[in-house]
Amino acid sequence: MTRTAQAPVDARFIERWSPRSFTGKAITTQEMMSLFEAARWAPSTSNTQPWRFVYGLAGSAGFDAIFNSLVPFNQGWANKACALIAVCSATTSVAPGTSEAKPSPNHAFDTGAAWMSLALQAQSMGWRTHAMGGFNADALRQTLGVPDGFAVQCVVAVGEQGPRESLPAALQEREMPNGRQPLEEMVAEGHFHFSR
Q: For residues 160 and 126, is the Cβ–Cβ distance under 8 A?
């Protein structure tokens, strides 16, 4: 599928997509830190930076712990990733100039911005990412020791993109960049007029 922008935009946004085919090529800890460094600079409410990342490199106990929380469908392709990242967010924050933790209504929104920064950094380095919602959050929380006060948002697979032929036939058909809704279905000036 060819992606076409409706307005001028940097190519990195159109070129980023979420493949499932990975080669199994190893990534270094230093390269992982570059991904997290990009996420570190994402914007956040009152600069509270609620995102937290727990990762495991392929072949490590951390990788296995995250992998074992995935639903079988995702385990079927994520086993070739070079790293898995559990993305969490603090559900409370301490505003500047205060000492009391209060509910943070924007923690998921801010963490989404950090995830996008991580994804774009990975792409710039020749890696690909695929975020997943198909995992057992309770099992992952327990295995990784995520305490109360933190939400488990998603799991991200990182890897070098592999050939679509390495996937099962049903997934090969889906292994391509997908499209997006047109701008007019998500953007309005002055008044909300969307049906969903």
A: yes
Partners of 90 in the beta sheet?
150
Question: Cα–Cα distances in Å, from 79 out to 9, 72, 75, 160, 166?
Answer: 34, 11, 6, 13, 12
CATH architecture under which domain 20-168 falls: 3-Layer(aba) Sandwich (3.40)
Sole residue written with tokens 């800890």:
29
Q: Which helix (H) or strand (E) holds 156?
A: strand 150-159
As a whole number of Å, the CA-based R_g of the chain is 18
pLDDT tens digits for 114-165?
A: 999 999 999 999 999 999 999 999 999 999 999 999 999 999 999 999 999 9
Which residues, 6 or more positions from 87, have their beta carbon under 8 angstroms from its beta carbon?
51, 52, 53, 111, 114, 115, 131, 152, 153, 154, 155, 156
29-40 and 107-124 helices, crossing angle to 10°: 130
